[in-house]
Input
Amino acid sequence: MNSNKQKIKVLYHYMRGAAAGGSDTCLYLLVKYLDKSKFEPIVLFRDESILIEDLRKQKINLINFSQSIKTKLYLQLKKNAEVSVKNENPDKSLKNELVKSSRTSSLIKNIKHIIKRFPETIHYAKLLLKNKIDIVHTNHDITSDHPMILAGLLTKKKIICHNRGLYIPMDIDVYLSKRVEKIICMSDFSKSVYVNNGVNGNKCKTIYDGIDTSFYKPSSIENNKFMISCIGRLEIWKGQHILIDAAEKIVKEIPDIEILLIGAGDFESELKRRVNNKGLEKNILFTGHITNVKDYIEKSSLIVHTSIVPEPFGMVIIEAMALEKVVIATNFGGPVEIIENGVDGILVPPENPEVLADEIIKLSKNTDLRNTLSKQARIKVLEKFDVVQYAKKIENVYQQYLQK
Output
């Protein structure tokens, strides 16, 4: 294949709407830093978004799915497939476990799932042939990407699946996983979720997400106040309520501390209620959804990551570390693979506001410790999470299977 040195065409199956998180950013960076002398990236997307505008600026070939397909498609993803916790009482302890849900369903249910999306599969197959695609790179999880994976199999394309979350595979997913070339996982933890539920570990490869370290460079911005930022969707599993509980103890030691809850989501009203009930309105501020996350990180003294369910990775953690900010994160899931406790950040047990408060107070009083941790954090990101290294590792996966 490509003996005449033609560029290898890679179709990136990006099927989300407005850019919303680390996975979207990482896909954009991969396409941006891909070696264009060897590869020609094409991005298939559903709706207009910030990500799409950025791709256009990079002069990337785009295919708008919503404009090109005429058949009504089955697009409703099974919400209980995503690892999340739905608990209306945030004070109730949430177990750290992945519970098999209806994805471990009957063969008949699996087949129905495939049949409902078959028109989508046929459309994709035609698209792959028309554009002479060499590699299909899906960017969600196997279940969500059934139609594209099947289209790739029908047209005999090389298929790379990127598992960008924590999803319990269905029976049909395990079957399809045997027929793709590779499944790229964001962390060893996210890989373990697949492997522990029937996917062959030899099919999975951990490649950590990367960031543009030339963009995320330390600045001289100083904030006279000691300021903490907690960045992420306002959802119960993100654990912002743990930080609010910790704030009761923190403000007694640091009365003028400013705590920013950055983001928006379904749990916002409950979080605001808790803040008001505790009389913390002067210390805890809600920013709503923002696009200039970097600016807020630069002004912060600490970044706190409070998830009470394991994160698949933690893009905002490496962004903060690259900016030489100390990160306090819960000690399970992806963050454990990013932070070495006491060396380049701090890890705390989940759902423990007392310990979280103690660590924040300790760091507020020890500038030397903050400086040491933050310097090491930047070094860690340069060594392990730079986007150029990330893109090269993905390219190596492509080359490995094109040679077969």
In short: The first helix runs from residue 22 to 33. Residues 16 and 141 are 12 Å apart (CA to CA). Confidence is low (pLDDT under 50) at residues 67-105. The two ends are 9 Å apart (CA to CA).
